[in-house]
Recover the amino acids of this structure.
C-alpha cells in the first residue's frame, strides 16, 4: 500500500500470541479509505501461529520479529522502521472504522498547528456487542488544556485512536521501555508538552 502519494501514514501494530485476532486488525487497516499507508507489524516473540498468519499477507505488510521485550519496545521498534509523515498505533485485538485515517489526515493537513488527533472508541465483545463508549457526551477543551481535563475526568486517550506527526514524536524518546503499564499515558503526557491535541 505504500506506493500511494504522500502523506504516508505508518501504522504500527505490536502483537504477541494473537494469531486468532491479528487478521482482523491488519484487515481493518487494509480496508481504510485512505490508501497511503504502510503497515508494520512487530511480533514480540509470539509462540503461537502468529508468524504463519502474518506470512499470508506477503508484501502488503512489513513484519519485524523480535524476542519478547514487551509492548513499549515493540512499538518503539516499529517507530524506528516507520517512513510515514504520520504515525498510528494499533493494538492487535482491535479494528478501525474504514474512514478513520482519512478523517484524521484531513484534519492534520488543514490544521498545521495540531500535532496529534484522536477519536472516541468503543469496547466490544467477541460477538460485536458494544460494552462501553470512550468519551460519551464529553466536551473536551482544545490544545494543551486537554491533558489536565482528561486527568480530572479520569479519562485516557486510547493510543489505538491516535494519529500523530512523526516530527512531533522526534521531540520525545518514544515509549518508556521501563513501563509495562500506562506507557501510552506516559507518552501522551509528554506529547502534550510539545504539541496541541
Amino acid at each position: 500500500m505504500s506506493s500511494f502519494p504522500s502523506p504516508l501514514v505508518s501504522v504500527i501494530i505490536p502483537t504477541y500470541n494473537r494469531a486468532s485476532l491479528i487478521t482482523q486488525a491488519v484487515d481493518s487497516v487494509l480496508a481504510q479509505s485512505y490508501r497511503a499507508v504502510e503497515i508494520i507489524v512487530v511480533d514480540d516473540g509470539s509462540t503461537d501461529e502468529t508468524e504463519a498468519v502474518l506470512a499470508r499477507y506477503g508484501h502488503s505488510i512489513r513484519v519485524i520479529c523480535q524476542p519478547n521485550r514487551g509492548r513499549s519496545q515493540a512499538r518503539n521498534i516499529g517507530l524506528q522502521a516507520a517512513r510515514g509523515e504520520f504515525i498510528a498505533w494499533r493494538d492487535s485485538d482491535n479494528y478501525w472504522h474504514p474512514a478513520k485515517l482519512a478523517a484524521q489526515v484531513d484534519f492534520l493537513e488543514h490544521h498545521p498547528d495540531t500535532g496529534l488527533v484522536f477519536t472516541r472508541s468503543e469496547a466490544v465483545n467477541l460477538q460485536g456487542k458494544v460494552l462501553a463508549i470512550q468519551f460519551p457526551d464529553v466536551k473536551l477543551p482544545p490544545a494543551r488544556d486537554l491533558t489536565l481535563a482528561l486527568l480530572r475526568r479520569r479519562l485516557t486517550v486510547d493510543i489505538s485512536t491516535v494519529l500523530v506527526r512523526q516530527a512531533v514524536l522526534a521531540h520525545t524518546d518514544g515509549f518508556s521501555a521501563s513501563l509495562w503499564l500506562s506507557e501510552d499515558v506516559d507518552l501522551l503526557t509528554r506529547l502534550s508538552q510539545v504539541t496541541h491535541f
Summary: The beta strands are 9-15, 37-44, 62-66, 86-89, 116-117, 122-124, 130-133, 163-165. The CA atoms of residues 23 and 56 lie 10 Å apart. The mean pLDDT is 84.
